[in-house]
Structure formats: structure tokens, C-alpha cells
Amino acid sequence: MGMKLYNINLTEEERKELTGLTTTGRQAAWKMLNARILLKADEGLIDEQIAEHLSINVRTVERIRKRCALEGVAAALNPKKRPPREPKVDGEAEARLIQLACSEAPDGRQRWTLRLLADKLVELEVIDSISHETVRQRLKKKRVEAMADSKILYPAGKKRRVRTSDGGCARGLPSPL
To answer: Where is the domain boundary, 27, 46, 77?
Structure first.
């Protein structure tokens, strides 16, 4: 059995508040779980027992118990705000990606694939490493921005037609009742 490094001793008021969180009102599931962890810890249970009772990982219990002991009940109930990550693809790398995507496909290929673009960016040492999913997201973002910036014109005299879900023309639809 593991040892408790941080003891949790709740006041009567804190106990009432946590019990209220777990029994009434609509709360986020993680907030209710954190409250249950603190209540069980206050009862004197060790981390392994709490984890087993609540069907969660022991590490989760340790983390919540430690945050409560060091920062207080309010901090333990709410998750820590993570600092924003720096985007991996900067403007220069994005410009290179678009330039590559618009260029001729490599020999033996009809078009660029996301994986080929990712591999080529690394090969050209534009970026240390990049996943094909990041390439997809950046290209999609640029396409949406380009669509928003441009004026989409429809030819004069042409009416917009209703299309079926597969893209075909919706001819011969039954008349509405």
C-alpha cells in the first residue's frame, strides 16, 4: 500500500461545499470527480483505495491531493491553465509549404500527398519535424482564408441549382405537398 504524502483535512464548510458539488446541480464531470477525490482523502483513505473506489488512475488522485495541500481546495477543483504553445509552423515555413503544394509533384507522382509534403519540408530543413496532419491543418486554414478574402462570383444568367447529397442534380424531385 502507498503512503499519503499530503494529508487533506477539510473544514466543515469545505466538506459541505464539496458534498454539494457532488450531489446537486449541474457540474462538469471532472469537477465532481475532483470533489469526490478530496472527500475520500479527507476520510483518511490512501491514494490506491480512492483510485479503486472511483475507478481512476492513482496518479490522478496523487495530483489532486498534492494540489489541494499546496494550493487549496479551489485550485484542486479546477484544472491548471496550460501556457499556450508556440505554433510549430511559422510564416516562413507556411509560405514554403504553400509554395511546395503549388509546385509540380515529385517524379512518378500525379500530385503531392500530405505525407510527401511533410517529408519534403523536413528534407529541405524548413522545419525539424512535422506530421502530415499539421500539414493538412495549415493548408486547410490557408484555403479558408483565401476563400474568405476573394469575391466569389456566379455567372450572370445562371441560377444556382439544388444538388443532392452526392453532388448530382436534383431533377425529378416530387412536388411538395
So the answer is: 77
As a residue count, the chain comes to: 177
Domain that holds residue 135: 91-140
Which residue has better confidence, 86 or 94? 94
SS3 category, 55? coil
Does residue 121 form part of some domain?
A: yes
Q: With b meaning 16 or more CB within 10 Å and e meaning fewer, what string describes 145-170?
A: eeeeeeeeeeeeeeeeeeeeeeeeee
| Rg of the chain taking only CA atoms, in angstroms | 28
Collapsing DSSP to helix, strand or coil, 142 comes out as helix
CA separation for the pair 8, 14 (Å, rounded) = 11
Structural domains in the chain (count) = 2
Q: pLDDT of 96-117, one tens digit each?
A: 998 998 889 888 889 999 999 9
- The Cα 162–Cα 142 span in angstroms is 28
| Alpha carbon distance 74, 68 (integer Å) | 8
